[in-house]
């Protein structure tokens, strides 16, 4: 499951994975962000907030994740990985080659610092 929380005031989308990610999780996240983009045109940032990375349920979920990235990365200014998982350190190095957003890692307990970074403070 992927909790998708949109903070409209700050134009920040928080994604909180719980358990193996499913295709439908990314479809729902796409619906949420697409509605906002139609209205406002840009998202300040995405926070991926998880203690540890749960992985994907199957290849369809992985493919859906890649499609979400491909379809939305140009409308997102910053991506913050807020996690204690080693995957966060690897993910920023890999994804920086495929997305236009600025990417930064934060410890799991530093969600507020990630918000401040996205907002430019």
From TrEMBL:
Xref: InterPro entries:
SpoIIAA-like, SpoIIAA-like_sf, STAS_dom_sf
A Pfam family annotated for this chain is SpoIIAA-like
Q: What is this protein called?
A: Conserved protein
Q: Give the organism, scientific name.
A: hydrothermal vent metagenome
**Taxonomic lineage of this organism?**
unclassified sequences, metagenomes, ecological metagenomes
